[in-house]
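G.,

No rush on this.
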Amino acid sequence: MKYIRLINKKWVYTNVLIAIVAFLLTMCLFLDGIEYPETVVANEEATFHMKVRVDAADNSDNVRLVIGYLVPKSWKASENTTVSYTSSIDEGEMNMSLIPTESLPKNGGGVTWSQGIKAKYGFGPNVLDDMEWVAYWSDRVYNVANGEDITADIAITTKIGPDNLRVKLGFFVNHTNDGLSEDTDHFKVEFTDCISVTDGEGDVTDFCELHFNSAQPLSASKDDIVTLRYQGDIGDNPLDPYEEIYLCSKVITDKGNEYAVCDATSKSKMMKASTFGRTFSLTFWPAGFYGVPEDESILRLEYTFTNADGSVELQDEEEGGSPRPFVYTFKCE
């Protein structure tokens, strides 16, 4: 005798869907806020706090908490940062460590944690890209039970870098059982408002807002290649009517000598980045561009942007409205 088993396809589909949803919701993460100072001091330590909440919807075994921290590269955060936390399921203070580069996120496509977070968020709301994500995970490996609600206060203590700047830091939270998936229930990210670094070296580098001028790299020696840009799309300015923009500049060396290039020639003419925009740039080798002798080091570069005959000049403005040249500081690293 044959028996025919009838299967309700709708019942199978519904139950499979429920199983998938239950799997995906094993651990929902929330970033309930970050606490940070509005001003920090160069070369001194500062502490930032992440308020994390975990809502476990199923049992999760062998899982670590993961955070990412977006900072300027000049802070060298991986060398100068400690991360600890207290939680509702631990006794006392627990530690987090840098994630080894060989421990890849399960859904990261073969990149490291830091690379994967950068791929998702870049440098956040900052306008300069000289930043990096540094990733940490909990030293403790957890088994989390279904229905368990966990809170954690993560303290990130960093030695602030040497430069005066303004920047928006980033904070990211995830866990190893998810590993950079596309499911936002498992990760959260938040960025600070603009934080000022004071009492440091050089003029203020502003990561927070676009300006008419920009320079790459952010710091250089006389032997590095430097690119200066006039970004006319930022707002109305005196050079708006002109299609030819020139760099008028000089460098000051450690021997007190000045070397200038200010004539409107092909040497100082800035190249337009595209047909439709108002960004112009000039890339050069400072020592050769200004003819600086080998026995002198460049301390700083002062520059303005002009039209072809020099009758219109765009400068920086100090607080109070007084014009002054833009300044680029050189240093050896």
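When you get to it, here's the other one too:
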Amino acid sequence: MAGKPPLESSFERGIFASRWLMAPMYLGLVVSLGMLAVVFLRELAYYAPQVLTMSSEKAILAILTLIDLTLAANLLLIVLFSGYENFVSKLDIGEHVDRPDWMGAVDFSGLKMKLIASIVAISAIHLLKRFMEIGQQAADAVFGREELFWLVVIHMVFVLSGVLMAAMDWLSARAKKG
């Protein structure tokens, strides 16, 4: 930083250090991951005793609920690891045997794609659950035609957003090459 005025250098160091203001947010996401784990275990404890008496449709709905929660937890982990490493500091865990291959290699563009893919998957599972509940009085009272229509529209917006983000990343990568 030779040649810069001391005030400018101090200001830039302060801005760079401000990234640590994100640390409490990532800690909050760790707490959120714990909350999801508790909800997952609660759902599992609710459905497990019913396994011998539940219908196949109810079993599939229960499993989709657990998958939905697992995908949300995976999404949280992706945001935690990638976000922290991209915006705050590198995780100093060396070559731990359990270290995911993608960790440290996902840039912001890759993070966006992983996020939208997870959101689309979660949305699809939620929509599938609603479709499977069609004809059940309790579900029909909550999710009528209009609600199902909007669930499909919202899902399609997520899908279209993912396609557009992928297209923008592809165009951006092509522009950098040429």
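The chain has one domain: 6-177. The helical segments are 6-17, 23-47, 56-87, 108-132, 137-142, 145-177.

Enjoy the weekend,
O.
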